[in-house]
């Protein structure tokens, strides 16, 4: 007779449990804001959705504003961390352009961006939060610029020109994301390819 024993359980450290709880709260906030809007996404609803205690929320985020800032930071992280910059930097230019456009496209078409869009449209009456978010976005833009400089330093463009191309690409991807909300049946794959072609043409023009 063979005895079947269960594998030993791996005990999580306090740091791991804390990180997991924080992650659940951020994900729950994104889900709730996307589903019911920023105003209706109360901390009570977010706590219930995350299946954690109110004390856990207050431990990680003293105020709702702190949680909202974390949501904004999450989108910034997603925009920069969807690709391996060091590995991608050695790829042909068209592959690099496709990778960065596809990365932005995936984020802007996803739930995190829709939550951020809902936040942005709802905080006119919260100037303190708006100021904090503006600061977060300034830091994010700086990090985006570093990535572009690493990926496209061989394109023959100045930092200012790279920043201009990046702003066009990101603005267009955001615009297409909003358009998809209004016209979900549109040819969005064609739009993505068009954006890739525009970015590639602008970057190639600098190396001539």
What does this entry show, briefly?
With 208 residues, this protein is mostly helical.
Instruction: Give the ordered list of helices and strands.
Output: HHHHHHHHHH
Rg over CA atoms: 21 Å
Note the overall shape: globular
Helix-and-strand structural type: mainly alpha
What is the fold's blueprint, element by element?
Elements: H1 14-36, H2 43-50, H3 54-60, H4 64-81, H5 85-88, H6 93-108, H7 111-120, H8 127-152, H9 159-182, H10 188-205
Helix pairs in contact: 1-2, 1-4, 1-7, 4-7, 4-8, 6-9, 6-10, 8-9, 9-10
Structure overview:
The protein has 208 residues and is mainly α. Helices cover 74% and strands 0% of the residues. α4 runs parallel beside α8 (127-152) and α6 packs across α10.
Notable characteristics:
single chain, mainly alpha, globular, 208 residues
């Amino acid at each position: 007779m063979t005895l079947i024993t269960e594998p030993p359980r791996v005990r999580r450290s306090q740091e791991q449990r804390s990180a997991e709880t924080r992650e659940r709260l951020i994900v729950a906030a994104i889900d709730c804001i996307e589903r019911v809007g920023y105003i209706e996404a109360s901390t009570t609803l977010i706590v219930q959705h995350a299946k954690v205690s109110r004390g856990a929320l207050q431990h990680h985020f003293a105020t709702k504003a702190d949680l909202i800032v974390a949501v904004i930071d999450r989108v910034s992280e997603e925009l920069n961390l969807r690709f391996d910059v060091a590995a991608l930097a050695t790829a042909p230019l068209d592959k690099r352009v496709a990778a960065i456009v596809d990365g932005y496209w995936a984020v802007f078409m996803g739930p995190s961006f829709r939550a951020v869009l809902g936040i942005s449209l709802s905080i006119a009456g919260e100037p303190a939060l708006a100021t904090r978010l503006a600061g977060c976005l300034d830091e994010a833009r700086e990090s985006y610029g570093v990535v572009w400089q690493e990926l496209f330093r061989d394109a023959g463009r100045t930092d200012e020109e790279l920043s201009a191309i990046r702003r066009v690409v990101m603005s267009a991807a955001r615009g297409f994301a909003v358009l998809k909300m209004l016209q979900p049946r549109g040819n969005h794959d064609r739009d993505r390819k068009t954006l890739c072609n525009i970015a590639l043409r602008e970057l190639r023009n600098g190396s001539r």
